């Protein structure tokens, strides 16, 4: 009999299910297609005739209501569940084969079916257990018994990921929240059980009710082997015991397994809480390239099994199969998910999309992998739908092959096989590429042999041949490093990584322009990461990170110091966002605001996390500047915006702490003002922050003024002084990630002798009545940074009124010139060979004084001058108001950019901001000097004030 004859026979068999001989041809065609695809579905329709009528009615669009497991019909529970599962499975086949559902919907439907059966079965068993053994209650902090505890059923694998295939088993782990509340720690019924045995027996009964084969078949196969210690471990675990197990003995494969974990039955809320506590076990805080070792081990074991059992045609475990796509996506999630929460999706296709959005996977690769995944999962389902068998192997029978091919819309088996081979070849290529980086990079054999011979052996001539000019000094440093306790104490696996990484670093350092400098800085960094295997793994697995590391430490002492002090920044070398566009103002503020949301009770944790965010973002800005991907002006502005975000978050933390001790002042407002380079949005790397604090409260300054409403109330002025002190202290607090910022508050009214925080009224009076000209100059760059926005607007009014005061131009110029000459005499560090970029003649401060004098002189007639704070903005507005002509404005913009860039370069390399004179500096200085002198401002200290 030919294949076509066999398919015709199957179609004829389906005709017997038609309700009448005159049944319509459309239904007959549907049944014929189902018959080709699934013996299981045809058998189910024969056993449950009413099911065909339901499917005919709406093509199975709606799932059936789950069965009610009544206690009086205990003996029929298994049959009810099995008949329900076979009917619903047939509905899924109907919709899949007839093209009514995509494969994603079929997988989701299989998942919902399993969840429903689990939840219905567990609820019935819980009621039965309560009659026989009572319930287990939690114990409160006061020793009294609390709420009833329920079993928590975690679904792992494809059940957890909501991508269950048609005839899959379900991977379950049983847990419970507490060990029990009664004095005996047992349930409270007539036949009490301790919590562990209570929930273990309940779980075993649940597995039996679903898994046991009866006359009606099975409901779902249950696999409990993913619990701690597998089959040797207890059946049900308390949360505390599970957490302790994962902390002490959790293995790489369990991290993969628990990535997809999800509470599917029982106490879902308790399960969700436990998974949150388990997140640090699954997702590390750093880029976790060590996860690839676990992946390699698992893949090697699977490959050995495939070879041993000849499973090359297994579309799940074989080459280019479903498992490789899952491993690829999950490995990238583990590597990057600790830092990027958006990647922690337990669903494979959304996780793949997130990886594409984060640029961890190219858009083309993501699309191809998603296509391959859907193709393989659809084929997997059809293999299982044929006879409800848990199989992943391509059929050997010619008839089965023809049935699968035709049902999937292919002409014949060779056509399907050709399409399958194309998909698997692509998956294999992508998967191998993930594991390949280590194999693609090898240091020269001579350097590898030299390093492994240290500290006693090794020939320093090898270093000279590699490119180290001072080979002897390099050799001495490397021998000292090899003798260090940190290297000698490494585990075998960590030493193996170091033996691969260090020769590659030597090769890269030797090729750099400053080989000895690079080597010295790299060894300092390695000393700090030897005990942190994740960072060695990153450098071992990713040659791109290693190359960028050498570049960074060679050209920037600041980056080298920060990498050595805070190895977490090594992650930034591989972060795809480093090479992309830098975040803008709102994104920088949001990144700081999101730090430890809603948990200001732990100030240390907030400051640590905020410091890590600041370090990472400022490092990213530094790398963009060093790589020439953005200008110094843009970098300085971003650093100021980042500082704004830090101050906002610290203010929130400070308010929480002061309010906890003293309550709050009703109707009061507080604002933080940024002066100097922060106000002017021209912050440097490592700059301190010039801050001024304002408050406004009902009846401020009066003896009967407002007080806070806490247990230890303070009058408003003291409350806000305490708040300002707290802000300064928190910004300067030392954490494991360093301190946030040094703060300078000397620019407040009356300077160091004045109050730390000023009321709005006193600040207004001071600016109008007592402030010096230089204080009005400082006000040109001042801006609202954090706090109450309405008070910020009030400050803007005070600032605008102050800057617009009518002034005698000659007296103004005399004041500005006198102050500038005094500053230069005290602060200018220029000499015959070098120029002080900030304080030197024609330097940045000269430009600032020029712009400030012009704003104070003409702002009364030009309101537009009140808006900008940064130097480019002020130059543009002065040009727009015809104070500067186009040539002068262009020359000053260029001069500012040149000086700022040189200054940031010095900061990045930890050099004083003094540089040798050159033609570009001469042009910049001349532009500033000429513009100042043309407007009556001669800052040259060699001439007496006018």
TrEMBL record:
MF annotations from Gene Ontology: [glutamate-ammonia-ligase] adenylyltransferase activity; [glutamine synthetase]-adenylyl-L-tyrosine phosphorylase activity; ligase activity
Domain PII-uridylyltransferase/Glutamine-synthetase adenylyltransferase: 296-434, 819-921
Region (Adenylyl removase): 1-438
Pfam families: GlnD_UR_UTase, GlnE
Keyword terms of this UniProt record: ATP-binding, Ligase, Magnesium, Multifunctional enzyme, Nucleotide-binding, Nucleotidyltransferase, Transferase
Ligase is among the record's keywords: yes
Matches recorded under CDD domains: NT_GlnE_GlnD_like (cd05401)
Origin: domain of life: Bacteria
Cofactor dependence: Mg(2+)
Domain (Glutamate-ammonia ligase adenylyltransferase repeated): residue spans on this chain: 30-276, 547-797
InterPro entries in the record: GlnE (IPR023057), GlnE_rpt_dom (IPR005190), NT_sf (IPR043519), PII_UdlTrfase/GS_AdlTrfase (IPR013546)
Keyword Thylakoid listed: no
Job of this protein: Involved in the regulation of glutamine synthetase GlnA, a key enzyme in the process to assimilate ammonia. When cellular nitrogen levels are high, the C-terminal adenylyl transferase (AT) inactivates GlnA by covalent transfer of an adenylyl group from ATP to specific tyrosine residue of GlnA, thus reducing its activity. Conversely, when nitrogen levels are low, the N-terminal adenylyl removase (AR) activates GlnA by removing the adenylyl group by phosphorolysis, increasing its activity.
UniProt-recorded name of the protein: Bifunctional glutamine synthetase adenylyltransferase/adenylyl-removing enzyme
Naturally occurring in which organism (per UniProt): Lysobacter cavernae
């Amino acid at each position: 009999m030919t294949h076509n004859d066999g398919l015709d026979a199957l179609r004829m068999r389906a005709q017997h299910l038609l309700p009448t001989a005159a049944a319509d041809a459309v239904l007959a065609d549907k049944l014929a297609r189902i018959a080709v695809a699934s013996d299981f579905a045809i058998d189910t329709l024969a056993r449950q005739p009413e099911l065909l009528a339901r499917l005919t009615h709406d093509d199975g669009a709606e799932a059936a209501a789950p069965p009610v497991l009544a206690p009086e019909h205990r003996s029929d529970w298994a049959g009810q569940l099995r008949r329900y599962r076979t009917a619903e499975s047939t509905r899924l086949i109907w919709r899949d084969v007839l093209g009514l559902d995509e494969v994603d919907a079929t997988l989701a439907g299989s998942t919902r079916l399993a969840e429903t059966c689990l939840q219905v079965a567990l609820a019935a068993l819980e009621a039965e257990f309560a009659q026989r053994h009572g319930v287990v209650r939690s114990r409160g902090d006061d020793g009294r018994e609390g709420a009833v505890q329920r079993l928590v059923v975690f679904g792992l694998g494809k059940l957890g990921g909501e991508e269950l295939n048609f005839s899959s088993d379900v991977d379950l782990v049983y847990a419970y929240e507490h060990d029990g509340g009664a004095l005996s720690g047992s349930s409270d019924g007539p036949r009490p059980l301790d919590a562990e045995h209570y929930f273990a027996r309940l779980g075993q009964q649940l597995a039996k009710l679903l898994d046991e084969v009866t006359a009606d078949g099975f409901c779902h196969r249950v696999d409990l082997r993913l619990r701690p210690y597998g089959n040797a471990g207890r059946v049900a675990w308390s949360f505390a015991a599970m957490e302790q197990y994962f902390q002490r003995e959790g293995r790489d494969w369990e991290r993969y397994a628990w990535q997809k974990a999800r509470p599917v039955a029982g106490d879902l809320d308790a399960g969700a809480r436990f998974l949150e506590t388990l997140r640090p076990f699954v997702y590390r805080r750093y880029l976790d390239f060590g996860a690839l070792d676990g992946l390699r081990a698992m893949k090697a074991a699977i490959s050995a099994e495939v070879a041993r059992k000849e499973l090359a045609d297994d579309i799940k475990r074989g080459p280019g199969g479903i498992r490789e796509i899952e491993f690829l996506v999950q490995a990238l999630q583990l590597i990057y998910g600790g830092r990027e929460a958006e990647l922690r999706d337990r669903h494979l296709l959304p996780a793949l999309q997130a990886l594409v959005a984060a640029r961890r996977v190219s858009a083309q690769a993501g699309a191809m992998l998603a296509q391959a995944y859907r193709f393989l999962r659809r084929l997997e389902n059809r293999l299982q739908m044929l006879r409800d068998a848990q199989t992943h192997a391509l059929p050997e029978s010619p008839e089965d092959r023809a049935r699968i091919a035709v049902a999937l819309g292919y002409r014949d088996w060779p056509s399907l096989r050709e399409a399958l081979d194309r998909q698997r070849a692509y998956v294999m290529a992508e998967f191998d590429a993930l594991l390949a980086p280590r194999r693609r990079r090898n240091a020269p054999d001579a350097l590898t042999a030299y390093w492994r011979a240290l500290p006693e052996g090794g020939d320093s001539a090898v270093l000279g041949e590699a490119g180290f000019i001072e080979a002897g000094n390099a050799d001495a440093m490397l021998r000292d490093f090899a003798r260090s306790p940190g290297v000698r104490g490494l585990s075998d696996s960590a030493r193996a990584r170091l033996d691969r990484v260090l020769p590659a670093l030597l090769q890269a350092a030797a090729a750099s322009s400053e080989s000895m400098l690079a080597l010295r800085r790299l060894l300092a960094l390695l000393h700090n990461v030897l005990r942190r295997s994740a960072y060695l793994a990153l450098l071992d697995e990713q040659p791109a990170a290693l190359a960028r590391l050498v570049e960074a430490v060679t050209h920037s002492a600041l980056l080298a110091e920060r990498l050595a002090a805070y190895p977490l920044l090594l992650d930034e070398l591989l972060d795809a966002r480093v090479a992309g566009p830098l975040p803008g103002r709102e994104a920088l503020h949001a990144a700081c605001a999101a730090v430890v949301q809603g948990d200001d009770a732990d100030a240390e944790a907030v400051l640590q996390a905020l410091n890590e965010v600041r370090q990472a973002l400022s490092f990213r800005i530094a790398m963009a500047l060093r790589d020439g991907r953005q200008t110094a002006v843009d970098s300085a502005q971003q650093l100021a915006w980042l500082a704004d975000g830090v101050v906002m978050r610290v203010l929130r933390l400070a308010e929480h702490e002061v309010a906890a001790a003293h309550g709050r002042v009703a109707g009061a407002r507080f604002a933080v003002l940024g002066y100097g380079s922060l106000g002017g949005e021209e912050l440097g790397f490592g700059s301190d922050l010039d801050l001024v604090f304002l408050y406004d409260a009902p009846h401020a300054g009066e003896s009967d003024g407002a007080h806070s409403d806490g247990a230890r109330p303070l009058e408003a002025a003291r409350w806000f002084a305490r708040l300002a002190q707290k802000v300064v202290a928190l910004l300067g607090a030392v954490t494991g990630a360093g301190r946030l910022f040094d703060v300078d508050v000397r620019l407040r009214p009356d300077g160091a002798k004045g109050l730390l925080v000023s009321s709005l009224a006193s600040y207004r009076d001071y600016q109008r009545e007592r402030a010096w000209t230089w204080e009005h100059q400082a006000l040109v760059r001042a801006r609202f940074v954090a706090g109450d926005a309405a008070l910020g607007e009030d400050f803007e009014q005070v600032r605008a009124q102050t800057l617009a005061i009518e002034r005698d131009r000659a007296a103004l110029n005399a004041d500005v010139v006198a102050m500038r000459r005094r500053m230069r005499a005290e602060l200018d560090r220029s000499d015959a060979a070098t120029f002080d970029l900030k304080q030197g003649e024609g330097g940045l401060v000269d430009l600032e004084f020029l712009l400030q004098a012009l704003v104070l002189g003409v702002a009364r007639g030009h309101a537009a001058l009140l808006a900008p704070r940064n130097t480019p903005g002020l130059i543009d507005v002065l040009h727009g108001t015809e104070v500067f002509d186009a040539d002068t404005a262009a020359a000053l913009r260029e001069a500012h950019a040149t000086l700022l860039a040189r200054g940031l370069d010095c900061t990045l390399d930890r050099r004083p901001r003094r540089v040798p004179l050159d033609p570009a500096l001469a042009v910049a200085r001349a532009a500033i000097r000429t513009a100042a002198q043309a407007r009556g401002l001669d800052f040259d200290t060699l001439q007496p004030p006018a």
